[in-house]
Design goal:
Chain A: Belongs to the ABC transporter superfamily. Chain A: Keywords: ATP-binding, Nucleotide-binding, Transport. Chain A: This is Glutamine transport ATP-binding protein GlnQ. Chain A: GO terms for molecular function: ABC-type amino acid transporter activity; ATP binding; ATP hydrolysis activity. The complex is a heterodimer of chains A (255) and B (519). Chain A has 255 residues and is α/β, with parallel strands linked by helices. Chain A has a single domain, classed as P-loop containing nucleotide triphosphate hydrolases (Rossmann fold, 3-Layer(aba) Sandwich). Chain A contains 9 helices and 10 strands. In chain A, strands 6-7-8-3-9-10 form a 6-stranded mixed β-sheet, with helices on both faces. In chain A, strand 7, helix 6 and strand 8 form a beta-alpha-beta unit. Chain A starts with 12 loop residues before the first strand and ends with a helix. The relative contact order of chain A is 0.18. With 519 residues, chain B is mostly helical. Chain B contains 20 helices and 2 strands. Chain B starts with a helix and ends in a 6-residue tail after the last helix. In chain B, 28% of the residues are buried. The chains are: A alpha/beta (255), B mainly alpha (519). The complex binds adenosine-5'-diphosphate and magnesium ion. Adenosine-5'-diphosphate binds next to strand 2 and helix 1 of chain A.
């Protein structure tokens, strides 16, 4: 498995962020972010709480608007022009900490909704695709249940399947395992590892360092709205450069 | 992974054991009474007192009820019969028999035509089914629900069949216009939006001008004493008129430009344009077209004027129409209030807050006297329609606030999940947000609906003869039934209770049906 982190990455650029800044009112959340992600890269973002990790990845699918600098996703420049935003969102899948499944729809309906309405896929075909991905995340038998009847780990896997049904070229994960009981974390991480093996471009905010070592080809450390350090996982964990990174790593790995 | 464990680990049960029945000594009425009625001495005393009160009440009311006279021609007649039988002071239900038709249909609806509103009522029950039980009946049946208003209108008001048919036709034309605009390219749609915006701005200014002129004219004609209100109103409107007269063309162009500029995905513009076409088609197309067809193929029922509607029928008409209009209008207002387009948000907030700040009675008086001036003079809008507009506006404002509560209760994550999947605003609202927000809002909406239904009796204060108006006027003031009281109001209470209780039961059932899993 450890070869995943050595898997080849193409030269094609998937996401390019240039001198990006964001404010909440007068609060400067993200400062001069520069980040280039190539197709097939698997990036883990970590950092202390409140450092702007969520905000950063939420800017990539325009859930949050940035005020300065540019973000280019898949060659499309993110602007406040509504048309671009919808195109980008249908290319970029996202998984949230609290799953955010639609509680009034069955698992299958959760998965077919966007393909049917956004991609205009015929219903039958959308259901076949949905069942394919539900099998992939190993819960096809739950298709007719409602989200409220599933465990947290199962819900998160459904959320991943729901995103995959849109056939996204990039996946964003915002702490997908931190709302889960320990025994359910593994099942979600396994699903994500499988996704990485298939060459999906992934940006994961997570504190699962084992996952980072196994899967990431780059780990990014953020603090106070800035990218403080980025490196290959080996280097990042064995040989951190900045004091803040060292402190952070000692805190989460220390005990 | 937890389910693979379930197969491999022996002590994990994967199905629930059925509950076993309780031991016999723990069931039965005696046990229930001991636990619930006589569990302590306080409880026992309360139980005894309550039983005594209930017994006293029943003993008082029952003879009144049981000895009631059902067959008499007047209240005197009634009293004589009771005096002869030695049951003086009992109920005189004969009034219900004697005035049954009036209580149900009012005293002016032609007696030979009672079958029409009756049939309309039966059809209402039948045609509401597909909508009320949508999850169990085929979707196709909803066509019956959609056609019902036209059929009912024709049955109750009569006149030419071609009027509702032409309305349907014009709606179809409007739908075609909608689809046409939807299919246009972005720049063409923007152009359409600009033109329509300008035209509707000019039209609005002109209507306002006409209305103001009319009011001014009227206020000039009434004597100073009684006309003080309308004089002031007329003055205000005159000033408005002068302004709108001078500015309605630039205003129209401004509105047009504003709509052109606020153009985003075009959904709003398309809707505004479509509604504008609909309004124009109805005002200028309906009369001539239906008259023309009717002169060739006349299919008519005896026409009944709105002022001849009355009795419980009037309450049912107002209740059904206003409830079914105010829910969608409430949804639109609630969404508008959340909008981030300042103009739309502002209009919705002002509307909701204004309407909620005014008693319904005031609005009804306005409907009675003033609303006519807001419409072009030649299109004399009839009284029932004016009342419908007011009651609908009133309850829509309340429903909007209920739904706003439902919208606010949705976690932000639902919006974000919908956005992140690439759903646009309309899709996210329709498929994700509204189904959940409306489900949360059901009890509140039903509360407003039940209140609205009972408030329809308020129209009796603007001299409409709904069931309460009938009782207070033609019945209690007739020589035959003078000062009859309990029997008629009890009847009115009973018919309202039946409907309101059914609505409440239906909504509880609906809530149970929509329950999806535990959260
Ligand atoms: N909607 C918001 N309005 C104002 N401040 C916010 C908002 N969302 C997040 N923040 C602030 O921005 C900072 C970064 O938040 P976030 O990106 O969620 O951090 P992380 O995910 O790294 O824990 C935090 O200090 C948080 O309080
Ligand atoms: Mg976060």
């Amino acid at each position: 498995m450890s070869q995943i982190s050595q898997m080849k990455v193409s030269d094609e650029v998937a996401i390019e962020i240039n001198q990006m800044n964001k404010w909440y009112g007068s609060f400067h959340v993200l400062r001069d972010i520069d980040l280039t992600v190539n197709r097939g890269e698997r990036i883990v973002i970590c950092g202390p709480s409140g450092s702007g990790k969520s905000t950063l990845i939420r800017c990539i699918n325009a859930l949050e608007e940035h005020q300065k600098g540019t973000i280019t996703v898949d060659g499309t420049l993110l602007s406040s022009d509504l048309k671009n935003i919808d195109t980008i969102r249908s290319e970029v899948g996202m998984c949230f900490q609290h799953f955010n499944l639609f509680p009034h729809l069955t698992i299958l309906e959760n998965c077919t909704l966007a393909p049917i309405w956004v991609r205009k896929t015929p219903k039958k075909e959308a259901e076949e695709i949905a069942m394919h991905f539900l099998e992939k995340v190993k819960i096809p038998e739950q298709a007719d249940k409602y989200p409220g009847q599933l465990s947290g780990g199962q819900q998160q896997r459904v959320a991943i399947a729901r995103s995959l049904c849109m056939k996204p070229r990039i996946m964003l994960f915002d702490e997908p395992t931190s709302a889960l009981d320990p025994e359910m974390i593994a099942e979600v991480l396994d699903t994500m590892i499988e996704l990485a093996e298939e060459g999906m471009t992934m940006l994961c905010v997570t504190h699962e360092m084992g996952f980072a070592r196994k899967v990431a080809n780059r780990v990014i450390f953020m603090d106070a709205g800035q990218i403080v350090e980025q490196n290959e996982p080996e280097q990042f964990f064995e040989n951190p450069q900045s004091d803040r990174t060292k402190l952070f790593l000692s805190q989460i790995l220390g005990h | 992974m937890s389910d693979t464990n379930a197969q491999s680990v022996a002590f994990v049960r994967n199905s629930e054991i059925p509950a076993s029945p309780p031991p016999l000594g723990e069931t039965g009425p005696v046990k229930w009474m001991r636990e619930n009625l006589f569990s302590g001495w306080v409880n026992s005393v309360m139980t005894v007192i309550a039983f005594l009160l209930i017994a006293r009440f029943i003993m008082g009311v029952f003879p009144w009820f049981w000895n009631g006279v059902w067959d008499a021609s007047s209240i005197k007649d009634c009293r004589n019969i009771m005096a002869d039988a030695g049951t003086a002071g009992s109920a005189c239900f004969a009034v219900l028999v004697d005035r049954w038709d009036h209580l149900l249909f009012g005293f002016k609806y032609p007696a030979t035509e009672y079958w029409r509103p009756t049939l309309a009522f039966v059809l209402l029950v039948v045609c509401a089914m597909p909508a009320l039980f949508a999850m169990y009946l085929p979707r196709k049946l909803l066509i019956a629900t959609a056609l019902y208003p036209f059929v009912a209108y024709w049955l109750i008001w009569g006149g030419s069949l071609w009027v509702p048919v032409v309305i349907l036709g014009l709606l179809a034309v409007t739908a075609a216009i909608y689809l046409f605009i939807e299919g246009l390219s972005v720049s063409l749609r923007q152009a359409v939006a600009g033109i329509v915006g300008a035209l509707s701005g000019i039209g609005l200014g002109y209507l306002l001008y006409l209305g103001a002129q009319e009011l001014w004219f009227i206020s000039g004609n009434v004597s100073a004493g009684e006309g003080i209100v309308s004089t002031v109103a007329g003055f205000v409107f005159m000033i408005a008129a002068i302004f709108t007269y001078a500015f309605f063309i630039p205003m129209g162009i401004f509105v047009g430009y504003a709509i052109y500029n606020s153009y985003e995905d075009g959904g709003l513009v398309t809707i505004v344009t479509t509604l504008f076409s609909l309004y124009a088609l109805m005002v200028y197309g309906l009369g001539p077209i239906s008259a023309a067809i009717n002169s060739v193929v006349p299919i008519e029922l005896e026409a009944v004027a709105s002022r001849d509607m009355g009795g419980y029928m009037l309450c049912m008409i107002l209740g059904t129409v206003c409830v079914s209009l105010s829910i969608p209008l409430g949804v639109v207002l609630a969404l508008g209030r959340q909008s981030n387009m300042p103009l739309i948000k502002g209009v919705c907030v002002v509307f909701i807050e204004f309407i909620r700040g005014v008693p319904l009675i005031t609005l009804l008086f306005v409907a009675n006297v003033m609303l006519a001036y807001f419409f072009p003079p030649e299109s004399s809008i009839d009284l029932i329609l004016r009342v419908i507009i007011m009651i609908t506006a009133f309850s829509a404002a309340y429903i909007a606030e209920v739904i706003r509560g439902g919208l606010a209760a949705l976690p932000k994550g639902q919006y974000e999940a919908a956005d992140s999947l690439g759903l646009n605003y309309t899709q996210a609202t329709r498929l994700i947000i509204l189904p959940q927000a409306l489900k949360i809002s059901i009890p509140g909406i039903v509360n407003v609906a039940v209140g609205l239904f009972k408030d329809t009796t308020l129209v009796s204060v603007i001299s409409m003869f709904d069931i309460v108006g009938m009782i207070r006027g033609p019945i209690q003031q007739s020589t035959d039934w003078i000062s009859i009281y309990w029997e008629v109001y009890l009847f009115a209470a009973a018919v309202f209770f039946v409907v309101c209780y059914s609505i409440s039961q239906y909504s509880q059932w609906l809530e149970r049906q929509l329950q999806t899993g535990h959260r």
